[in-house]
Amino acid sequence: MRQLSIGPTFILAAVCWVASPAYGQQTTATAQGEASPSSSLVTNAPHQTASQARWLELDFEEAKERSRRTRNALIATSASFALGAILAGIGASQCQQIGSSSVQNYNDLQCNNAGNVLLPLGGTIAGLSAIGMLTSGIMLGVSNKRKRDIQRDIRRSQYGRRLHWDIPKGALVF
Q1: Predicted local confidence at residue 102, as pLDDT
Q2: Please, which residues have CB within 8 angstroms of residue 56's CB and are 6 or more apart in sequence?
């Protein structure tokens, strides 16, 4: 081993050796267990349903907030898409088509100053907002699915498991 990695390893070992013993998952020893070496160690398992329910509630609040933010983003991008479409429509009304004298017969637009500004501006706003609407719509669907999954987990933790058919046992299981 390199000398640089040996030093921190020894420091970590010394700190762990000096540290008091740790108990996993909130285990405690009874007074009898500490007094008598022949008695067994009594451990108390943490109340998992209460702590799990608390974490699920926190996850649900976070999912609700995320869903609200993405819904607001979808509303904002939809409004900006409508604004861009209106601006592009106003700009297009300020333009007129003229025939081209070239062989390919492409039509050109001749616009006044308002049409020259509003048509590209409105088209750009509408195009970017359409991308934002698509993205925020997908994100809203995902966040609502996550919120529904958490709600389902909360209901399951409150009401316990439902009665279902266990195929390997061939019986109804609670």
Answers
A1: 61
A2: 150, 153, 154, 157
139 Cβ contact list (under 8 Å, min separation 6): 70, 73
Question: What 3-state class would DSSP assign to 95?
Answer: strand
8 Å CB contact between 105 and 99: yes
Residue at token pair 């009898």: 32
Rounded to whole angstroms, the Cα distance separating 116 from 81 reads: 19
**Residues 6 or more apart in contact with residue 33 via CB below 8 angstroms:** 39, 40, 41, 42
- Radius of gyration in angstroms for the set of CA atoms belonging to the chain, rounded to a whole number: 33
Q: Give me the amino acid identity at 138.
A: I
**Averaged pLDDT in 10-residue chunks for the chain of 174 residues:** 60 57 48 45 46 85 95 97 96 82 66 89 96 96 94 78 77 77
pTM value is 0.58
CA triplet 134, 138, 141: central angle to 5 degrees? 140
Amino acid present at 34: E
- H-helix or E-strand spanning residue 53: helix 48-93
CA atoms within 13 A on the CB side of 78: 8
Backbone angles phi and psi of 46, in degrees to 5: -65, 150
Q: How far apart are CA 16 and CA 25, in angstroms?
A: 19
